Automatic annotation (TrEMBL):
Keywords on record: DNA-binding
Stored InterPro entries: Aminotransferase_I/II_large, HTH_trans_reg/aminotransferase, PyrdxlP-dep_Trfase, PyrdxlP-dep_Trfase_major
Pfam (any one): Aminotran_1_2
Residue ranges annotated for the Aminotransferase class I/classII large domain, each copy included: 15-296
Protein name: DNA-binding transcriptional MocR family regulator
PANTHER family from the UniProt entry: HTH-TYPE TRANSCRIPTIONAL REGULATORY PROTEIN GABR
Organism of provenance: Streptosporangium lutulentum
GO molecular function (one): DNA binding
Region described as Disordered: spans on this chain: 1-24
Amino acid sequence: MPVKAPEGPSDPEHNLRQGQPDAASFPRAAWLASARRALNTAPNEAFGPGDPRGRPELRRALADYLARVRGVRTDPGHIVVCSGFAHALRLLFGGRVLRGPLAVESYGLAFHRSILAAASVRTHPLTVDEHGARTAELPAARGVRTVLLTPAHQFPSGGPLRPERRASVIDWARTGNGLILEDDYDGEFRYDRQPVGAVQGLDPDRVLYIGSVSKSLSPAVRLGWMVLPGHLVDEVLRAKGEREAWAGVLDQLTLADLIDTGSYDRHIRRMRQRYRRRRDQLVTTLAERAPHIALTGIAAGLHAVLRLPGGDGADDRVAGRSGDRPAT
């Protein structure tokens, strides 16, 4: 007799969970066309043991795309494919490529903290305001030579890292032989102007840039990349091992074709317009129905920041009704 599956929790009245891309907008036709071309043209050796660096077709496509769209300065030999930002962070710290202490934004993405805690990394918090992390605090962080930042669109404050703070963190890295880990969170989704280039373009030897397709395509496509300073390439490959165990070859070849044919760019443009319309609708609705709620942060990414009235405790009360908790 079939057993009825237990029912999951009921949907919250208002789902305020951040960073969830529109799953219905996955470019199925373009992905299928690229998958067919990739499968038909793939060399025979692509179906052998994987290369821990990732497929050369994808690394070449990424080097060109990131230079053109994000201002990243690199070449395919400095790119290592992974399965996303979480995988990159686990390789870097779980694989002992990097060690603590590590400066981090004082509040941000919870999974960053959980991965670092699992690797026993000691962290030093940097104060965050509407202009991003206060990088001027870095020189006072004793023993810290590595910092993790989300310069394009800080979560949850919603602000970018200001130009003077970008310059400050680069100066800190150069002066103290430091390293910047750049999580390019929401980097491609800026709605009020052209996206600001990656910090990596200011000094490729001092910045380790990490990106993925979790927002642009889908978190179900487990593909990401690390753009590494030259002295870290061999160490990352050592941590990854001789056989690629994470990112599937066919998905890598498909993404490379999607980029090379321009389908990826077209998809990003469509999604940028779609997400901008959604944000504009939120702004209009709030103005009409809840003018007492202020929308803060820049027009970017897949989350908006609402400043609630009611003083301390307002966030907790709303979070309880929305099925989510505020970041701390």
